[in-house]
Amino acid sequence: MQTSPVLPARGAPARSLHRFANPGRFLRISGRVLPFLSAAALVLTLAGLGAGLFLAPADWQQGDAVRIMYVHVPSAWLASFGYVALAVCSLLSLVWRHPLADLAAAEISPVGAGFTALCLATGSIWGKPMWGAWWVWDARLTSVLVLFFLYLGHVALVRAFDDPQRGYRAGAILALVGVVNLPIIKFSVDWWNTLHQPASIGLTGSPTMHFDMLWPLAVAALGYTLAFMAIVIARTRAAVLERRIHGLLMARAEAVR
Amino acid sequence: MTRKRRRLWIVLGCGLGLGSATALALTAMRDNLVFFVSPSEIAAKAPAMGRDFRLGGLVEAGSLRRSTEQGRPSSRFRVTDGTGEVSVVFTGILPDLFREGQGVVALGGMLPDGSFRASEVLAKHDETYMPPEVAEALKKSGKWNPTTGKPPAAATWNTLEPGKPVGG
Known about the structure:
With 257 residues, chain A is an all-alpha fold. Chain A contains 8 helices and no strands.
């Protein structure tokens, strides 16, 4: 059923896409990039969090509790961006049968679930002293909880079949269906009244956050983004190698028999 | 049409169908998706007596009265949304962010006298984040009174150096 990755290339777009489908090339390029990516991710994350925790001013009404933001907001952004990456990989897998996209999607969802869990936990820790409640069922919190369950569902579904191809297919469909949740998360605070505050930083208008708090947040967010990429790339490399070893072992078992 | 192209169209078609179904469902349920109702909505359509709901709005400036009832802190304040207002009674500890001019969400029900008996009061934080010195400078310059309204446009203060007076 699954066609070999070495398809005869038809037309320019197909050829350019399949250039990156080659796992050998992926291992070569990513192996060169990964050390720099990991180092940059570590430096920027530590710099952003350090500046947020020690250099940035306290908030005039939240006091030092505002510092939870430097952990919470980047993880919330990455929870959503990670899902976009998962959806893109799922599309590449369903439509173009991209073998590397299957592996990447299976490796993105546990990482995305981790970032979403961090977002939910830190939000809860902030909510108790500030709002007066650990959790409320408003549209923003509920839709992020649904995102968490979508990630967990993808983690489980991809690994639920004896034939991995069927798992990838089912996971890709689940991930694409879940995309409807992304605009709901983003606009929940604008469409309905919620306890969660609306966005402070948008494409239009000046950010309603003082610059002394904004720059550590931006550095931390960049660090988180690179960290997410580095973790996913490292996991995907491991998955490619694992699959190769599996193939070699199978070949040897065949030869012995 | 190649098989890839056909698969792409199927995915896009399913996405369009799913997207519009979700949009229709959310529009139909919009009244149930709100976290709280505002005082003017209560004035327009009186809620059923004895049924709990959430009331949301700003704590009206100068309306807060604190007292002690049987050894527990008790408070009485008005919640407004600019057009309507409802007085709220609450016995218990208010959250840290509670103040006059702050957004709050109270869970409870209407009393026969038209006031609201809250069993829980949550403070709502708005989307502004500023250092204490900047808030102080804005208050001193008369550009902002936190008990009566929102802070001025963000561009006027988000690059202000803490400790310097507000210019202009």
